[in-house]
Design goal:
The complex is a heterotrimer of chains A (511), B (333) and C (89). With 511 residues, chain A is mainly alpha-helical. Chain A contains 23 helices and 4 strands. Chain A has a single domain, classed as Ribonucleotide Reductase, subunit A (Orthogonal Bundle), CATH 1.10.620. In chain A, the strands form 2 sheets. Chain A has a two-stranded antiparallel sheet. The longest helix of chain A has 31 residues. In chain C, strand 6 and strand 7 form a beta hairpin. The longest helix of chain C has 13 residues. Chain C is globular, with a radius of gyration of 12 Å. The chains are: A mainly alpha (511), B mainly alpha (333), C alpha+beta (89). Chains in contact: A-B, A-C. The interface between A and B is large, with 103 and 95 residues. Bound molecules: fe (ii) ion (2 copies) and zinc ion.
């Protein structure tokens, strides 16, 4: 036994308290204990080079997390006891929460499962422990979100069956397929997808400006869970960056694999966040920051700094980032005008933005809003006023990869719809963009499996062929309560009575 | 008039989520219920996992155990995340006091050299068993198909990491935080004959594919014999060796084990109670693993408290299993 | 091209001490208030020193306590007993 007499420093001590508990197995083979570590082609030469992204032992974890939870639940209790839902800026705001609870919260649960899985798959104990800690954090997020929304669910529609809807509703296959894609990949791709591309590069866009917006709209419960969850995120982000650096440093053969994953997952994440763009610009009655401003700060500026740092490993920025940067002027408007037409099949309401809101958008989107989008809203408003609130009864064409309807336009050509198609083994597939088509070409055997909601309806797998049956029976969207136009909806009427105003009459319904 | 409007506007339109109401009725639900039931995705998965294309994501067929509804397995402690960390924060606060006290008064380094060696040889190597338990429970949390089940296992995974860290700290106290004692103790784990059957069992557990077989093996069979043996019987024995202060440092483990008995017993009851087929499957696994667990712990018992103590621990486990209609060897009564 | 690191705190009592300490130790940093949050960014490097925090708080302070109030970061992290550093090298 080597004689030591130097006291361990913090870093070495942490290693003794985590990875040193692991050992070289001799009774079972490494490949049998860790069968999933090799098939992606990533070469790990030496796991001992792993840098622990943070040094939190379990006792400290329990202590700090319990402190956070105590604060958080004190606010939930106070919020419910004081009927905090009455203090929000406007009931239209709650629609963002409906989208959040059905679109995002189930992803937190999927993240919990995914990180539990990779928390076992790696042969490096340091990496496993970091992943497990994230797993239990993500469980936390999934559960605190249920609790934060619980009170809203008692007073507003559309929040009542989120996990059921997440498995079925057409547009919720966008987030669902995103996470299924990551979870069905190998452990290294999973971490590149979620820890790096999503958590490090993109989630700020959801959790920082949107949550700040929640505060600005008087929603104490949401901003509190949002920021409390984000305090775990600082650890997750550190893990994301460490993971990428570690893989890249291990072997030069890893670089092209990782680059392809970054290209793919940046784009997958960007498409997923298009839902967030409309939450920010349209669903927050009091506005903090536009989507394009948030994109500039949190992607162009911060992402720029990050990719500059990664240059030394031979990594370049994501392949289609120019398309994404260009899209910041259009994204939220294209999404909202689409969802406006399909409100009959969503668990949240849509509406025409009010005059002041449109003016705000003109100011934030000087080159695009007045030119391309304001006229659409003026037309739609006129139709609605004439009693013809527009609903599109043709089911949308979904992209085979990201599953968003093919509603986006070409870069630099905002009136030209972006669409690609490809024949694979005799079957024709449709895509929203070159980037999604690229992703498909690389792994067709994966993306042909996609559970595309519109196809499924046509194939009769959703309890009916007509939209009404599918919406009510299969999706559990309560017709006339959860869906359609906001004006005149039960939520709207309820809000007016809270505010002591006369419930909306028929004329206002149509306005 | 305006008062009336205010009261109707705070009247809830429903009392809980539909998915919670389908199980428990539309009445105010507990935090545990809203956080634990039917959150995990159930259907319409998009892609087959590349690491196991035989099954889908969240596929119930990843275990041979069949349940009509896996949510029938739930946690009697009603731990959702907040309740869990709150509980463990209290436990760790107590442990911290004990470790701090021990450290400050040099209670361990004042023990005779031989006793210190006993700790390093017979107790500290269990940190490696804990890491195995940590890995196994993380796998189960990733494979289980109901939030009620998955969450209990991630708590268990993190708990085992924590216990491994407490055991490691015993060695760090002995060597004045140089790591030498941990190196020494790891040497026993790797080479000492005493530990080899146990190390083999742990490594064997790491290749078990069926997650329910694994929870049975890890959380019921191994723990069910190991915790009573080590943290009760060996604890008393250490006291007789003049090392009663060590007891302070394993209080956490005793409290923890008592706590886990609640959910492991409830889980076994629900699963065995479901069907004859489940009982038969469980019985087959028990017949296969239980004697191996006994044999893995035997050298440790022989080197400390004696085999009778292990036989008692085995009988204790047998009594637990019998309550849910399962048989195991070593029944003394 | 400029390369900014950043840190975001929840706007609460703890964070006010943190923000003060950060601004004191990083004169090149820029502080922005947004609803419910405080965002601090700086060219290349930001450091939070335990010593400064302990001075501000008048008590012992563990660098990890910060984790309770931080909601986002950008930059490589270097953390030890005495400081928390964010930087692009
Ligand atoms: Fe999360
Ligand atoms: Fe996260
Ligand atoms: Zn697409």
């Amino acid at each position: 036994m080597a004689v030591k007499n130097k006291k361990l420093n913090l870093k070495d001590k942490y290693q003794y308290l985590t990875r040193d508990m692991a050992w070289e197995p001799t009774y079972q083979k490494m490949e049998d204990i860790y069968p999933d570590e090799r098939f992606e082609g990533i070469k790990i030469v030496d796991w001992s080079q792993w840098e622990d992204p943070f040094r939190l032992t379990m006792d400290a974890y329990w202590k700090y997390q319990a402190e956070k939870e105590k604060k958080l639940y004190a606010i939930f209790d106070a919020f419910a006891q004081n009927n905090g839902h009455q203090n929000i800026s406007d009931a239209r705001y709650v629609n963002a929460l409906k989208l959040f609870l059905s679109g995002v919260s189930p992803l937190e649960h999927a993240a919990f499962q995914g990180y539990s899985k990779v928390g076992r798959q790696f042969s490096g104990a340091g990496a496993r422990v970091a992943c497990q800690m994230q797993a239990i954090d993500e469980l936390r997020h999934s559960q605190t979100q249920q609790h934060a929304m619980s009170h809203y669910n008692k007073h507003f529609n559309g929040l009542h069956d989120a996990p059921h809807m997440h498995d079925r509703v057409w547009f919720l296959s966008v987030p669902k397929s995103f996470f299924d894609d990551a979870r069905s990949a190998g452990p290294f791709e999973f971490l590149t997808a979620i820890s790096f591309s999503f958590e490090y590069v993109l989630t700020n866009l959801l959790f920082v400006p949107f949550m700040s917006g929640a505060a600005y709209n008087g929603d104490m419960a949401t901003v509190t869970f949002g920021f409390s969850a984000q305090s775990d995120e600082a650890r997750h982000m550190t893990l994301g960056l460490e993971v990428i650096k570690f893989i890249l440093e291990q072997h030069e053969d890893n670089v092209p694999i990782v680059q392809r994953w970054i290209d793919k997952w940046f784009w997958r994440g960007f498409r997923l966040l298009s839902l967030v763009s409309m939450m920010m610009d349209y669903m927050l009655p009091n506005k903090v920051m536009s989507w394009s401003e948030a994109w500039e700060v949190y992607y162009e500026q911060n992402g720029g700094a990050l990719f500059k740092d990664l240059e030394r490993y031979g990594i370049r920025p994501p392949k289609y980032q120019d398309v994404a940067n260009d899209a910041k002027h259009h994204l939220s408007h294209q999404l909202w005008t689409t969802f406006y037409q399909y409100s009959q099949a969503t668990n949240f309401h849509t509406w025409i933005p009010e005059k002041e809101e449109m003016d705000w958008m003109s100011e934030k989107y000087p080159e695009t809003f007045d030119k391309y989008y304001r006229p659409r809203y003026e037309y739609l408003a006129k139709e609605a006023a004439a009693g013809r609130r527009f609903y599109n009864n043709t089911l949308p064409q979904l992209c085979q990869v990201c599953q968003v309807p093919t509603l986006f336009t070409e870069m630099g050509a905002p009136t030209k719809l972006s669409h690609r198609q490809l024949v694979h083994e005799g079957e024709r597939y449709h895509f929203c963009s070159e980037a999604c088509c690229d992703i498909f070409k690389h792994e067709p055997e994966k993306y042909v499996q996609a559970w595309l909601p519109v196809h499924q309806i046509y194939q009769g797998n959703c309890e009916g062929a007509d939209v009404e049956t599918v919406v009510q029976k299969y999706y559990h969207i309560n017709i006339g309560e959860d869906n359609f136009e906001y004006l005149g909806s039960p939520d709207h009427k309820h809000w007016m009575s809270i505010k002591g105003e006369k419930p909306a009459d028929e004329n206002q319904d149509a306005a | 008039m305006s008062i009336e409007i205010k009261t109707t506007s705070v009247e809830p339109i429903r009392h809980t989520y539909s998915h919670t109401a389908r199980r428990f009725g539309d009445k105010p639900a507990t935090r545990y219920q809203e956080a634990s039931y039917d959150l995990e995705a159930k259907t319409n998965f998009h892609y087959r996992p590349q690491w196991d294309a035989n099954y889908e994501l969240n596929d119930e067929r990843r275990t041979a155990i069949r349940m009509e509804d896996w949510y029938a397995v739930s946690d009697p402690r009603q731990f959702y995340y907040g309740a869990y960390v709150g509980n463990r924060a209290k436990m760790q606060e107590q442990a911290e006091t004990s470790y701090g006290f021990c450290d400050k008064r040099n209670l361990l380094t004042r023990l005779p050299e031989e006793t210190q060696k006993l700790l390093l040889r017979l107790m500290v190597p269990l940190r490696h068993v804990e890491l195995g338990a940590n890995m196994n429970n993380s796998k189960i949390a990733g494979d289980a198909t109901a939030t009620t089940v998955a969450q209990m296992h991630i708590y268990q995974a993190m708990d085992r990491l924590g216990i491994g860290q407490y055991l490691s700290r015993i060695a760090l106290m002995l060597d004045g935080s140089t790591g030498a004692a941990l190196d020494e103790s790891k040497g026993y784990w790797m080479g000492d004959q005493l530990w080899q059957p146990m190390r083999k069992l742990v490594e064997d557990s790491l290749v078990v594919q069926d997650w329910f077989e694994l929870t049975l093996l890890q959380n019921v069979l191994i723990d069910g014999m190991m915790f009573p043996l080590v943290y009760h019987k060996m604890d008393e024995w250490l006291e007789s060796q003049g090392a009663e202060d060590v007891s302070m440092l394993t209080e956490f483990m005793r409290d923890w084990y008592k706590d886990t008995l609640r959910w492991t017993n409830a889980m076994m009851k629900a699963v065995a109670g479901e069907s004859e087929a489940n009982v038969a499957q469980l019985q087959q696994w028990i017949d296969h693993w239980e004697p191996q667990v006994y044999n893995a712990l035997k050298p440790l018992a022989e080197a400390s408290v004696g085999v009778e103590a292990l036989d008692e621990a085995r009988a204790e486990l047998s009594t637990r299993l019998k309550k849910v209609g399962l048989q195991s060897q070593g029944v003394s009564a | 091209m400029s390369q900014l690191v950043f840190i975001v705190f929840q706007d609460n009592d703890n964070a006010r001490y943190l923000a003060e300490a950060v601004m004191e130790d990083n004169p090149h940093a820029e502080l922005q208030h947004q609803p419910a949050m405080i965002r601090i960014q700086a060219e290349k490097r930001l450091v939070i020193n335990r010593e400064t925090m302990e001075e501000k708080l008048g008590r012992d302070w563990d660098v990890q306590e910060m984790l309770i109030d931080v909601i986002s970061i950008g930059g490589n992290v270097d953390e030890d007993d005495d400081h928390f550093i964010l930087e692009w090298k």
